[in-house]
């Protein structure tokens, strides 16, 4: 490869932060942050078709239901749709008392003025202003030096303070974002923020929010954590400032950066549900929140019906959620592969109600987010007996004995190989039915009469053999021995088991028999009936017929 064409030469590693006594690496997340959804702003501005008023309202109500207390609802000076949406929220009384709406504006006088107009009559509001501070933006976008950029920020901060004072009926919170904080020289980021602090004069009782965006993610997440810890140590009036994280996912590590940022001392997280947002998206709030469960923390957001939330988000954003998306993807609580299914089935069987969650391969209990166990195990050609057994147990109450699991899984394997497709529980049951329950040839059991006296059983059997009715009679120490004695072929029973399916008046019996015919290969049969003796007789004929058919097939 020619070095001249080597793309890596265009880029430079992000320099490490000088913070040898960093503390975040040995911390864990022990507190739930303040959550802020930016779905209706950062999410919305990145959509092919931004949401209309109806969609925005539907999304807003879902966010409220989920439990978000801070919601960035619009960029009011951007469009009439956004402006009018803020008006509708306020005038229509749609904002619950414990929810604060947030709006974004550039640090420009006309836009700030329009933003305050949109907020007239709000009980509470966060006014969020941003301007770029990163070196390339200073040069490319603003053509300003550092002092010029500080001037943009402080001028806007002053105007915001002044306009807020003119609308005293609203409980205001001010928020400032130095854009691409993560690419801004740290001391300059602090310098700009300190200048804004000087204007806003926050106190521990009336804090401001400093939102520190990784607008474009261009370093490993440990760098972002260092930047957050460094900033927290150096910013003035730390006790009067809420440090907010706002990460994007350009390198695919938005969640990691946010989590490490929390360990580094941040108080608040902005993001979007399922990671919508500019380019690769904002950090996925759902993932960060649900990851808290595995830290033993309740995220204080309600995703107990995650599929209902997903439906709203997909319909409003007109973007599908990927099937492998953490927590919510269609496939993420599903195991196809044999060894995973085996471990999951054993895990479910041993998991006790209320005990610490230990089911292998499932980081959280799917039921906690409204997912059903049925979806957990699905069967294709990579599956083994564990998954097949699990589905038959869950869906049909059929518990195959161990050796029969092995035998039947080979039948299923042949079918999945032949189809090249997944098999549903229903298809598996149909296969079990045709292979075992419908194994009625050459012997079709038509009826039986059982007499038991002094420990001896005598059975009269009516069977149909190749269309002809035959009567068989046998005696033995029990019904099965009597039945075996009645047969015209040599049958040796290797194993027998039974269990109930269901309970009460609808209960049925399932019987399983493993037998050998004339010393041949051991094979299984199943019988299901309301009557246990009938079930066991059906099981015997099921196994016998399978054995005879196979012998015939092998001879042919
Ligand atoms: C990282 C982020 O997500 S930031 C949020 C981005 N979101 C959006 O932009 C969505 C909504 N935006 C819009 O609809 C439009 O940009 C508007 C209506 C707000 C403004 O539109 P316009 O007036 O046409 O300006 P435009 O967006 O092109 O911005 C360019 C001008 O604003 C300046 N500018 C850009 N950002 C800022 C800022 N944060 N603060 C101050 N000035 C800014 C630029 O330097 C440029 O100035 P110039 O014309 O003197 O060179
Ligand atoms: C407006 C700011 C906070 C933003 O969205 C970003 O920098 O990503
Ligand atoms: Mg953003």
Automatic annotation (TrEMBL):
Its EC number is 2.3.3.13. The gene is leuA. It catalyses: 3-methyl-2-oxobutanoate + acetyl-CoA + H2O = (2S)-2-isopropylmalate + CoA + H(+). Belongs to the alpha-IPM synthase/homocitrate synthase family. LeuA type 2 subfamily. It is an enzyme of class 2 (transferase). Residues 33-307 form the Pyruvate carboxyltransferase domain. This is 2-isopropylmalate synthase. Residues 439-556 are annotated as: Regulatory domain. Homodimer. Its main location: cytoplasm. GO terms for biological process: L-leucine biosynthetic process. Its cofactor is Mg(2+). One of its GO terms (molecular function) is acetyl-CoA C-acetyltransferase activity. HAMAP family: LeuA_type2. The keyword Isomerase does not apply. GO terms for cellular component: cytoplasm. It holds the Pfam family IPMS_D2. The keyword Cytoplasm applies. It is found in: Cytoplasm. InterPro entries: 2-isopropylmalate_synth_dimer, AIPM/Hcit_synth_CS, Aldolase_TIM, IPM_Synthase, LeuA-like_post-cat, LeuA_allosteric_dom_sf, LeuA_N_DRE-TIM, PYR_CT. Mg(2+) binds at residues 42, 246, 248, 282. Pathway: Amino-acid biosynthesis; L-leucine biosynthesis; L-leucine from 3-methyl-2-oxobutanoate: step 1/4. Catalyzes the condensation of the acetyl group of acetyl-CoA with 3-methyl-2-oxobutanoate (2-ketoisovalerate) to form 3-carboxy-3-hydroxy-4-methylpentanoate (2-isopropylmalate). SUPFAM superfamilies: 2-isopropylmalate synthase LeuA, allosteric (dimerisation) domain, Aldolase, post-HMGL domain-like.
């Amino acid at each position: 490869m020619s070095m001249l064409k080597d793309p890596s030469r265009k880029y430079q590693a992000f320099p490490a932060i000088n913070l040898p006594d960093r503390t975040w690496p040995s911390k864990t997340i022990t507190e739930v942050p303040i959550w802020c959804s930016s779905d209706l702003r950062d999410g919305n501005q990145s959509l092919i078709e931004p949401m209309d008023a109806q969609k925005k309202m539907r999304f807003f109500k879902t966010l409220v239901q989920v439990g978000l207390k801070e919601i960035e609802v619009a960029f009011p000076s951007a469009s009439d749709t956004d402006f009018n949406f803020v008006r509708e929220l306020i005038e229509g009384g749609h904002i619950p008392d414990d929810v604060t709406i947030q709006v974004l504006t550039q640090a420009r006088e006309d836009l700030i003025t329009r933003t305050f107009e949109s907020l007239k009559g709000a009980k509470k509001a966060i006014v969020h202003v941003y301007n770029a501070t990163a070196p390339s933006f200073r040069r490319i976008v603003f053509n300003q030096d550092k002092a010029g950029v500080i001037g943009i920020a402080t001028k806007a901060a002053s105007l915001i303070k002044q306009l807020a004072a003119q609308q005293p009926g609203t409980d205001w919170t001010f928020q400032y974002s130095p854009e691409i904080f993560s690419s801004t020289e740290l001391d300059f980021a602090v310098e700009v923020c300190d200048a804004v602090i000087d204007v806003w004069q926050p106190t521990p009782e009336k804090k401001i929010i400093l939102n520190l965006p990784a607008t474009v993610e261009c370093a490993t997440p440990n760098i972002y954590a260092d930047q957050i810890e460094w900033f927290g140590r150096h910013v003035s009036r730390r006790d009067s400032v809420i440090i907010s994280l706002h990460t994007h996912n350009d390198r695919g590590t938005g969640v990691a950066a946010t989590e490490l940022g929390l360990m580094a001392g941040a108080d608040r997280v902005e993001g979007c549900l399922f990671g919508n947002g500019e380019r690769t998206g904002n950090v996925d709030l759902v993932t960060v929140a649900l990851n808290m469960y595995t830290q033993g923390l309740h995220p204080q957001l309600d995703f107990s019906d995650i599929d209902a939330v997903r439906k709203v988000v997909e319909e409003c954003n007109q973007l599908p959620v990927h099937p492998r998306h953490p927590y919510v993807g269609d496939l993420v609580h599903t195991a196809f592969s044999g060894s995973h299914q085996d471990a999951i089935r054993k895990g479910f069987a041993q998991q006790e109600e209320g005990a610490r969650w230990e089911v292998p391969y499932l980081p959280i209990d799917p039921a906690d987010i409204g997912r059903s166990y049925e979806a957990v195990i699905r069967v294709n050609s990579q599956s083994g007996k564990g998954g097949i057994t699990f589905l038959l147990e869950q869906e049909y109450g059929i518990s195959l004995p161990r050796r029969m699991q092995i035998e039947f899984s080979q039948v299923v394997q042949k079918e999945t190989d032949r189809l090249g497709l997944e098999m549903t529980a229903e298809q598996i049951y149909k296969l079990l039915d045709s292979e075992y329950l419908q194994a009625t040839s050459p012997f079709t059991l038509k009826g039986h009469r059982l007499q038991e006296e002094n420990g001896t059983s005598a059975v009269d059997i009516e069977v149909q053999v190749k269309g002809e009715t035959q009567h068989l009679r046998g005696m033995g120490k029990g019904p099965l021995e009597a039945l075996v004695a009645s047969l015209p072929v040599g049958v040796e029973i290797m194993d027998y088991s039974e269990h109930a399916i269901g309970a009460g008046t609808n209960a049925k019996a399932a019987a399983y028999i493993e037998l050998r015919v004339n010393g041949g290969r051991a094979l299984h049969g199943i019988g299901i009936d309301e009557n246990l003796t009938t079930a066991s007789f059906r099981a015997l004929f099921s196994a016998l017929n399978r054995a005879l058919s196979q012998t015939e097939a092998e001879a042919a």
